[in-house]
Amino acid sequence: MHCPKCGADLPDTGAECPRCGVIVAKYLERDKPVPRDTNLDRDRDMEPRDPAALFLGAGPATSMAAAVGRGILLLLLALWTTTLVPDGVSAERVNSSFLHLPNLVFHEAGHILFIPLGRFMTVLGGSLTQVLVPLVCAGAFLWQTRDTFAAAAALWWAGENLIDVAPYIDDARDLKLVLLGGKTGAEVEGHDWEYLLNAMGVAHRDHLIAAIVQAIGTLTMIGALVWGAIVVSNQMGILRSGRTKPWS
Fold it and tell me: How far apart, in whole angstroms, are the C-alpha atoms of residue 26 and residue 45?
């Protein structure tokens, strides 16, 4: 028997080379092939190769319990949507939502993030960031984790943020909205959208712009709900049919 490292002669029972000191068993062990993770290979094989299939939720089939849970969550989001968008722009209704405070955290962080881009973008960055954060989450869910339903839920959140911004825009001239510090815009000499719309010369159209943002937010939420419903329906169909390759 020879040392696999230096070639020195070894007794058959030798565990250590007297010349180079290598432990023969350990040296040989490192050359063994690493076993493949068959579960990982199976999951990769299950991923849809077609982008359309990914958007439709034709990914690896989850359990029926998870699919039903997603359906229940979707129903709750639909019911919540009906409380947010029944009669146009409403600061009182939006501000009473528990999502308003989390949205506000991203709003304030956005002002800081956009400071290097000048005053206009610093002011706009608050509202912009609270809409961009859920959109980035949707993209990450879709392309990184292949969780289409989570992407649809994040898109719904982006629409909800647009509805959250709409009353702020609507108040550009009235300045009656109570701000974070507990005072109205009139008491603190304006707020974000009062400055932004005046800077763009469209302050006289604040109500129209707010209504458009509200409408876009509403359509985004409805579209996300429809998307989520399609995903849940497809995943339940995959589970019922027992297919192993959802895109086939």
Answer: 34
Question: What is the DSSP track for 212-229?
Answer: HHHHHHHHHHHHHHHHHH
Q: Which residues pair with 54 in a beta bridge?
A: none
Residue 45 has pLDDT above 50, yes or no: no
Distant-in-sequence, close-in-space partners of 66: CB < 8 Å, separation ≥ 6:
none
Tokens of 30: 């490192």
In a domain, 6, yes or no: no
Q: What angle do CA 151, 156, 161 make, to 5 degrees?
A: 125
pLDDT at 42 over 50: no
Residue-wise pLDDT tens digits, 74-97: 999 999 999 888 777 777 777 778
From residue 47, alpha-carbon distances to 128, 141, 224, 225, 242 in Å are 33, 14, 22, 23, 16
What is the DSSP annotation of 44-81? Answer: HHHS-SSHHHHHTT-SS---HHHHHHHHHHHHHHHHHH
Domain extent at residue 220: 50-241
Q: Determine, yes or no, domain membership for 16.
A: no
Is the whole model's pTM more than 0.70, yes or no? yes
Average pLDDT of the residues in 109-117? 96
The better pLDDT of the pair 214, 45 is held by: 214
Classify residue 180: in a domain, yes or no.
yes
Q: How many domains does the chain have?
A: 1
Count the neighbouring beta carbons within 10 Å of the beta carbon of residue 96: 11
In terms of Cβ atoms closer than 10 Å to its own Cβ (0-12, 13-18, 19+), residue 37 is exposed
| Assigned domain for 8 exists | no
For residues 50 and 191, the model is more confident at 191
